[in-house]
Amino acid sequence: MKNIIHTTKASLPIGYYVQGILLNKIFFISVQIPINPFIGLITLGINKQTFQVLENIRYILKKKFFISKI
User: Fold this and answer.
1) CATH class name, domain 2-65
2) Where are the domains of the chain?
3) CA distances from residue 32 to 1, 17, 24, 41 in whole angstroms, order as listed
4) Which residue ranges in the chain fall short of pLDDT 70?
């Protein structure tokens, strides 16, 4: 069974991609880019970009697993 995961708190996928897919018991997350979904802009600086990508992944994981402390 396939479930598509979507949250507005992570960068939106471009084209035909999705943020995440749960296929059987395996969870796939698409490649994330350092776009801040709240302002729609790419974060400047490698440290801030890395943080933004990890935040996007965190929100996708929270959406799927309902985890409050990641």
Assistant:
1) alpha beta
2) 2-65
3) 24, 11, 22, 13
4) 66-70
